[in-house]
Amino acid sequence: MSASAVHSLWTTAAEPITRIDAPKFEYGQMSPTLIVLGAAIVGVLVEAFVPRKSRYYVQAFLSVVALAAAFAAVVALAAGGYGTTKARISAMGAIAVDGPSLFLQGTILLAGLVSVFTFAERRLDPEAHGNRVDSFAAQAASVPGSDSEKAAVKAGFTTTEVFPLVLFAIGGMLIFPAANDLLTLFIALEVFSLPLYLLCALARRKRLVSQEAAVKYFLLGAFASAFTLFGIALLYGYAGSVSYATIAQVVDGSIQNVTPALADTMGNDALLLIGAALLVMGLLFKVGAVPFHMWTPDVYQGAPTPVTGFMAAATKVAAFGALLRVLYVVLPGLRWDWRPVMWGVAIVTMLGGAIVAITQTDVKRLLAYSSIAHAGFILAGVIAMTPDGVSSVLFYLAAYSFVTIGAFAVVTLVRDAGGEATHLSKWAGLGRRSPLVAAVFAVFLLAFAGIPLTSGFAGKFAVFKAAAEGGAAPLVVIGVISSAVAAFFYIRVIVLMFFSEPKPEGPTVAVPSPLTMTAIGLGVAVTLVLGVAPQYFLDLAGQAGVFVR
Amino acid sequence: MENLIALLVAAPLLGAAVLLCGGRRLDRTGHWIGTVLAAVSFVVGAVLFVDMLGKGPEERTLTQHLFSWIPVEGFQADVAFQLDQLSMTFVLLITGVGSLIHLYSIGYMEHDERRRRFFGYLNLFLAAMLLLVLADNYLLLYVGWEGVGLASYLLIGFWQHKPSAATAAKKAFLVNRVGDMGLSIAIMLMFTTFGTFAFGPVLESTDKTSEGMLTAIALMLLLAACGKSAQVPLQSWLGDAMEGPTPVSALIHAATMVTAGVYLITRSGAIFNGAPDAQLAVVVVGAVTLLFGAIVGCAKDDIKKALAGSTMSQIGYMILAAGLGPVGYAFAIMHLVTHGFFKAGLFLGAGSVMHGMNDEVDMRKYGGLRKYMPVTFVTFGLGYLAIIGLPPFSGFWSKDKIIEAAFAQQSDLRSWIFGGVALLGAGITAYYMTRVMILTFFGEKRWQPAPDPDTAPSVEPGIEVHPGEMPHPHEAPKSMTIPMIVLAFGSVFAGAVFGIGERFVHWLEPVTSFEHPHPVVGVPVITTATIVVLLLGVGLAYLQYGRRPVPVVAPRGSLLTRAARRDLLQDDFNHVVLVRGGEHLTRSLVYLDHSLVDGVVNGTAASVGGLSGRLRRLQNGYARSYAVSMFGGAALLVAATLLMRAV
C-alpha cells in the first residue's frame, strides 16, 4: 500500500466529526425507574460500607423509602396528565410514558413495597443464637450443611443483599412494560430476571430445594431468553428497526420511506411470523402460560416464600404489561394471525392450570397452578383487542397482585419444626386453632375463586366481559368452566381448614411483626374494597387503557 | 284532611318501634303508650269519618301519595293510601276494637313479664292491618298482608316456652305461606296483564281483559284469602292459633286479621265479577267452610277452640256472600263488622272466664258461673244472642241478609243448595253456641282443682296457679269489663243501626256497587225459616246439655263427634297427603340426586381428577424435560402462527 493511500486512509478517518448529539433524556418522566435503580446502587454501597449489625435496618429503610418515593413519582406523573393527554415516548424512543405504563408501574411499586415488608419480616423463624433472622440464607455462598454455613448461622449473619436485589428486579420490571423498542425490552427482561434467579436460591431452610429451583429457573429462563432474542433478531431482520412504532408501520404497510434494503425484507412474512411467535413465546414464559409453565410449580415451591409472593405478583404484572404492549402496539396488524394461536394458549392455560391444581398436596404448588390458571384468565382479556380488554387486564393484575402477596404471606405464618408447613394435610383444622388466620386465607382463596364481593370476582367479570365483547365468547365459556374446576380446590382448602379435625401435632401459627401484618391486612383490605366498590378503580384502569404509539 | 291518613298507620307503627326498641325502661309505662297510640289512631279515624260523612257519596274517596317506593322504568310502585268507604269501615273496626282490646290486655296481661313486648306486637299488628286496608295498590297491600302475618306469628307464639304455642305459630306461618304465594302470583299476573298494581287502573280495565286471565287472577286471590281467613282447604291453623293469649284471639283471630280475605275479595270485586267460575269457587269455599267450622265448633270442649270453629264458620258466611257478587259484597262487609263486635266480645268473655277459673279452658270443668261473674255472663250472653242471629240483635240483620242473598242466584239449583247450606249453618250455629252458653254459665259446678303447671302445659303463664287449689271465680277488673260492655252494646245495636233503611248498603254502594237480591222464595219465608231453624238448634242443645248432667270427662261419642273433635281429621289429611307425599317426593328426588345427578357430577369429577393425576406426571422435576416441553411449545406456536397465515 502506498504512502499516499495510507495517508488518505488516515486523513479520511481523521476527518473531524462535526458534532455528537448528546442523547436527550427526560429525567422527570423516567424518575420512578431512576429512583428505584439509584436506591439499588446505594444498597450495594451499603453492603460494602455499613457495618453488618445495622445493614438490615438501613437496607429495609432505604428500600421502603425508595419504593414509596417512586410510587409518589408515578402518582405525580399520572396527576400531571402523562397517563392521558400528555402521554409520550421519551428517552430517545426507548420508553413509553403512557396510561398502561404508569398504571402497571404503580401496581409493581405497590406490590414491591408490600413484598419488601414480607422480606424484612424477622419474627417468624426462631432466633438463631440470639439473633433475629429472616427467611433468607445466613450466607448464600456457603454450601448447605457445611461448617461454614453453621459458622455463618452462629454468627447471626443474614443476607441483606436481598434488598438491593429486589430493587434491581423492580427497576427492570418498571422498564419492561414501558419499553418501546425491542432492545430495551430484552435488557429490562434480563435486568429483572437475573436478580430473581438469585433470590430464588436464598431460602434459609430447605436450601437444596431452593438452589435446585434457582438453577431450574435460570436454565429455563436463559433458554426462553434465547428464543426471545432470536425472535427480536428476526423482527429486526424483517423491519430493519427495533422500534415498536416502526415495526408496526412495516407490519401494516403504512411506512413512508422504504429503503431498498427494507423493500427486500418486508415482503418476507416468514421472518415476521416466526419472529413474532418467538418474541411472544418469551413473554408467555414469564407469565407462566401453558406449555411454558413447567418451571412455575418447582420454582414457586423452592423459592423463599416472600420471594414467591413477589414473583407471582410483580413478575406477572410486568410480563403481562410487556405482552400487552407488544400485541397492541407492535403486532396489531398481525392480529388475524396471532389471535387464534393465543386463543389456543389461553384455553390450555386455563384448563391446564385448573385441572392439575386439583391433585396438588402442597399449598405453594397449589398456588403456583392457581397462578397458571389466572394467567389463562388474563390472557382471555388480552385477546379482546379492545380498550376494554386493556383496562380489564390492568384491573385484574392490580387486584390479583395483592391477593397473591397476601396469600403467600399467610403461608409464611403456618409453621412447624421444619419451617413453613406447606403440606396441605397439615392445614387440616387450622380454622379451629387460628380462626383469624384461616379466615383471612379463606378470603384470599375466595378471591382467587372469583366469588362476588371479592376483587377476584370484579376482575374476572371485567376480563370475561371484555373477551365476550371482543368476540371471544367460547373462550369465556371455557374460562367459566375452568373457574368452576378451580373453585373446587380453593374451596377444598377452606373445607380442610374449617371442617376437619385438627391433627394433634399440627403446625402452629407464628405471630408476625407488624410488617407481615401490614402486608396481609393490605391484601384483605384491597381484596374487599375492589370487590365491594370496584367502580372507581375500574374507571381508573379505563382511563389508563390507551397505549401511546 | 287527606294528610291525616298516614297518621293512622304512623301512630301504631311508632308505638311498635318505641316499645320494641325501648328496652326495659318502658316496662312500667309501655302498655299505656301502646294503648294511647291505638286510641290516637282511632280518634284520627273518627275525625276522617266525620269529614267523610260531610261530603257527597261520590266525593268521599281520599288519596295520599307519600313517596315513590320503587321507581324503575316500566315498574312503578308507590307508597300511597286510598281511603274510601270500604277502607273507612275497616279503619273504624280495626282501631275501635283494637283500642278496646289494648285496654282489656292491660288487665289480662298484668302479670306477664313481657307485657311491653306484647303491646309492641299488638301495635305492630294494628299498623300492618291498617296498611293492608289503606293501601292504594296491591303491592303495598301485600306488605301489610305479610306484616299482619308476622304479627300473628309473633303473637300466637308469644308464650314461646310452651312447645304447643311455638308449634302453633309455626303452623300458622307455614299454612299462611301457601296463601301468600297465591297473592304474590296474583300480583305478578296483574303486573303482566295490566302493567300496574294500583287499584284504580287494574279494576277499571277488567272489562278489556280475557275471562281466562281474570279467572286465574281471581283463583290466586281466593287462595290468598283462604290462607289468611282460614277457609277450607287452608283452615287448619286457626284452631291451633288459640294457643296465643286470648286478646290476640279476639283481635287478630276473630275480629280483624282473619277477615282480610273478605276484604281482598270485596276490594277486587271487579276482577271476580268478570270471572263467574272463580265466583262459584268462592261460594263453594264459603259454603264448605261454614259447615266445616260449625261442625268442629259443636264437638270442641275447649271454649276458645269452639269459638275458633265458630269464627271459621262465620267467615265462611262472609266469603259465601262475597262470592255472590254485587248482591253480596255489602252484606259480607256488614256481617264482618257485626261479627267483629260480637265475636270479639265473646272471646273477651271467654278470656274473663279463664281468668277467673285458673286458666282452665275445658268447658266441661265450668258450670254455674253466671252467679259468680255477672258482667261476663250478661255481655257474653248478648254476644251469644247476636251470633245465633236472633232478632233484633246484630247478627240477625247481617246473617239473615246473607241467607237471603244465597237463595238468590242465577240458577234455582244453586240457590237451593247454597241457600240450604246457609240455613243449615244458622241452625248448627245456634246449637253449638247454646252448648257453650249452657256448659259455661248454667248447670251445676264441675270445677276441678288447678292442674300442675309442669304436667299441664296449656296453662297460661304469668298467672299464679297453685296446684290442687280449687278455682275462686271472680269478676275481672274494670279494664277488662269495660271493653266487654262496650262490645256488648255493639252486639246489640250495630245490626239495627246498619240494617234499618239499608244504611250500610248505601254507604258502601259507591265502592262495591249493589243489586237487590231476588230470592227463589219470598223474603218473609226465608226469615221465618231462619228463625225456626235457629230455635230448633237452641232447643236441641238445651235437651242435650241443659236437661241432663254434663260428664266432666267427655264421652267417647259417635264417629262424627270424634272426627269433629279432631277438626274433621284436617291434620290427618294434611299429614297423609301433604307430609307423606312431600316426604315421598323428597326421597325420590334425593334418590335421583344421588344416583343420577351425583353420578354425573362425581363421574366428571373423577375423570377430571384422573386427568389431573396423569398431567401431573408430566411435571417430573427434570429441567431437561421442561426444556423439551418449552421447545415443543415454541415449535407449535411458530407452526400454528404460520398455519394461520396459510389458511
TrEMBL record, chain A:
Main location: membrane
Localization terms from the record: Cell membrane; Endomembrane system; Membrane
Coiled-coil zones: none
Membrane topology summary: Multi-pass membrane protein
Transmembrane stretches, start-end: 30-50, 57-82, 102-120, 162-179, 185-203, 215-239, 270-295, 307-328, 340-359, 366-387, 393-414, 435-455, 475-499, 511-533
Subunit structure comment from the entry: NDH-1 is composed of 14 different subunits. Subunits NuoA, H, J, K, L, M, N constitute the membrane sector of the complex.
Protein name: NADH-quinone oxidoreductase subunit N
TrEMBL record, chain B:
UniProt GO MF annotations: NADH dehydrogenase (ubiquinone) activity; NADH dehydrogenase activity
Domain annotation NADH-Ubiquinone oxidoreductase (complex I) chain 5 N-terminal: ranges: 69-119
A GO CC annotation given for this chain: membrane
Key word NADP present: no
EC top class named in words: oxidoreductase
EC numbers, comma separated: 1.6.5.11
Membrane topology listed for this record: Multi-pass membrane protein
Location(s) in or outside the cell: Endomembrane system; Membrane
Transmembrane residue ranges: 31-54, 89-106, 118-135, 181-203, 209-227, 248-266, 278-299, 372-393, 413-433, 480-501, 521-543, 626-644
Domain NADH:quinone oxidoreductase/Mrp antiporter transmembrane: residue ranges: 135-417
Keyword annotations from UniProtKB, A to Z: Membrane, Oxidoreductase, Transmembrane, Transmembrane helix
Cited InterPro entries: NADHpl_OxRdtase_5_subgr, ND/Mrp_TM, NU5C-like, Proton_antipo_N
GO biological process terms held by the UniProt record: ATP synthesis coupled electron transport; electron transport coupled proton transport
Name of the protein described by the UniProt record: NADH-quinone oxidoreductase subunit 12
Organism of this sequence: Streptomyces jeddahensis
